[in-house]
Fold these 3 entries.
Entry 1:
Amino acid sequence: MAKKIAFKTLGCRLNQYETDTLISQFKKGGFEVVDYKEEADVYVVNTCTVTNKSDHKSRNTIQQGKRIKPDAVMLVTGCMANHRKDQLNANEQITYVVDNDRKSSIFSIVDAHFKGELVNPDEYEKDVFGFAVGEETIHTRSLLKIQDGCDNFCSFCIIPFVRGRAISRPVQEVLENARELIRIGYKELVITGVNIGRYDYEGILFEDLIEQILALPGDFRVRISSMEPEGFGEKLYSMLNHPKLSPHLHICLQSGSEAILLKMRRMYTARSFSEMVQSIRSVRPDMNLTTDIIVGFPGETDEDFQASLDRVKEMGFTHVHTFKYSKRDGTRAARAGDQVPEKVKSARSEEMRLLSEENKRAYRSSFIGKQQRLIIEKSGNAYSLGLGEHFVPVKVMGKKLPANSWQLVQIVGIESGDDPALIGELL
């Protein structure tokens, strides 16, 4: 009987990409992949440690798996496995702790375990790009990893310590991976990494790589995942209207206050960020722009927070992923004395959320009467759900359409609620 394995992924798209490829590898290896809430022989928790809340979720997830089947193999990987490695190794509930550098070896580690071999994860080779193409995953889109690590060392961020310094994947490896994904039948490739705008492999920069991916043959689209405001040269601006490039960008602002950006040790000013957004919109006025904002950073005043609200209004971000500042051991901001009370952080977070929802509804409503080319994500009898080229969800009512298929629709309405999908009719 096949061994059962369950995965739980927390945190960023890069973690999701790595889990997807592991799922495919275990399926090919004869394992049955089940939901994390079900009984399994192996539980793999791909953790996040970007905030204290992330650590708490990771610990709860580990305990959840052990409650379901106490004698199961519990393997913990991801950023918490780097940040809290000694603590996790001391946890008797955990069988193996595998750091990010060796995550691609998880199948080999589990396989060796069930063959009765003595396993020490730290003896496996380090390879942050050693993930096979995810042919059989739980998603209709595929992430395409081009880069790992970060050299920026922002004062609030622990990522350079748990993901390591920036490293770019060889160009030919990226292109071969992309070709294989297109051959398998993926309609959307999502470019991902830790700081993708800093991609630089032997003089080939981020915009050069995107140009080469877009030039590949096939009917597919490319979406650029979360990025820092870096990598925007004239070539990238010139590609914003390319028919294969999704008009959606998630660019991390973090704060609209010049004083707070300086304390964060960000590599730009609010003014230069605003000028970049104006340049993007001059080329592509309908660009769907989303962002990250940290509220309650040490020393953030009411005036600083208002500056963030003003920038979000001015730039028209259609979604704001709002983080309440969380102390991370070893970072400069954790040593700051002017910490903002939790109650104030919560109030500011709620105010930012409401503004984000207002922007989102206004932007999505602008598509009524226009056309969108969808990739169908979910198919049901009541409706099929797809994503338009602007990364906006669209429901086609009363139609059971094939998943991962292209569909052209006319937008005829919008739902109510906080995260409204558009309503489309087939053309």
Entry 2:
Amino acid sequence: MPATSTLPRDVATLALRLLQRHGVDYADVRIERFLHEELVAEGGAIATINHTESLGLGIRVLVHGSWGFASTPHLTARLVGRAVTQAIDLAKAARLINRQPRPLAPVVPARAHHVSRCAQDPFAVPLAAKIDLLLAANQALLGPDAIKRATTHLDFFRRHKLFCSTEGAEIEQTLTESGAGLEVVAEGEGRSQVRSFPNSHHGALAQAGFEYVESLGLVPGATQARQEVLQLLQAPPPKAGETTLVLDPTQMVMQLHESCGHPTELDRALGHELSYAGGSFMTPDQLNTLQYGSSRVNIVADATIADGAGSFAFDDEGVPAQRVDLVRQGRFVGYLSSRETAARLHLPASGGAMRADGWSVPPLVRMTNVNLLPGTGTREELCRGIEHGYLLSTNKSWSIDDQRLNFQFTTEIGWEIINGRLGRMVANPLYTGITPAFWGRCTAVGRPEDWQLWGVPNCAKGEPMQVMHVGHGSSYARFDGVMVAPAQ
């Protein structure tokens, strides 16, 4: 368990006392200390070592149905008082244009303390040991002249948060995350290819300590990535046409994120939030009605799962972490929600999905860990009976419309499936579909033994933009009748 530093509870007490004097309808105060250590190696040498730390306070108030928010890094009595006044003044100003009531779904005010699981504190590991691992993995990527870029990184995060509300909540949490990854780029034969390990888009992240980084096997993973990126320079593209796909857990991360996670954010479905990821076709009139996928598709938002980058004990409204069904046997049945959006749909309680990426911004409805529940069958059993198809791995690029319907994904690598067996490697495979039709073609989901949980450290939403850490878990999944083509 990592050591934790004390947050100034007297500052939170002062802010709440001032807020209550002003007679606000509701208010909460978040004090957060944030640590981030980043190490990057490129081309066999250390390129970056950064250590950042911030501490501040955010105040959110509800006055006559309108929200106001203010923050400050200066935790003196005078400047905390100024932030209280600013938050209240903004709420009153918003009242001039907002005529809708803002009821909140009920929550039992909690008094709690939570520290995430962490066997080896990453901030206590000697810097020399981190550098040795980073360079060993980076040097394993180097080789022939075709290798043009080799990058490895380590990232460690700690959030120590205190949440207090005028309803009586007082919750302290310390969340530690560790992550690592690598990427190698090769050029030859007039083409460029990339290979990542253990996953693309900044590797892997978990709510755990340095032991998680050690478990990834970065050095052997780098050797495999180097071999595969060189093979991709010679690999043919896939044949264009309708076929059967088996997606591995690394690609299922992006499929879940873009076509289920974002459209089930209830603020999007209500039209309250459209920036960076658009709206949603999964509108309230579709709840409990829309056949989102086949009966094999069961998707949950689970903030309680161990080690998830989207896990916590309480969200940033003081709502307990929970597991919420989003899709059950193919039917759309639930949302990622906040206290306000849950009340808009007359739901009995919030789904506990409100989070802010720091003390200086208000919380938004965010993904937690949006997971496809496992089915049965090994990868080999999912491939059985496929005369010609593809196994695709590791997302390379994506595109999806602003209603989360029409999508296109390219993966870093794929393999032909011929008569149920894996064949030759293919480069730049692309597949496309319409979300409910695609998930409706899901004919099998793999077994629990192959289920993997991945952390995503860069989910963007809102203006000003907030970048959140979320998670996605899946096993292999099979989809019949999908359009595939070579990426241009």
Entry 3:
Amino acid sequence: MFVAEVVGNVWGTRKHCSLCDKRLLLVRPIDPMTEKHTGDAIMAVEYTTGAGPGSIVLVMDEGGSARSVLHDEKAPIRTVIVGIVDSVVSGGKVKKYD
């Protein structure tokens, strides 16, 4: 799992049936304390969190667990947004997000 910023939306004219009612977003990993980007943007499934561009999110990046979150063991996904981050505490320091 990692913390990321949602940097965009993904649209597809055709989706696998298990993704039809789910949004696809681009997320870019960040250092949660400095908000500096630590990697390239990847696509993630958004499901019931309400996340959108600009949100800081917790991302699960492991296929079996991601499919378990969606309750669909045949879904062709690896990465899913599992929550919106309100704050992070590390080394006694607190970083809050709006």
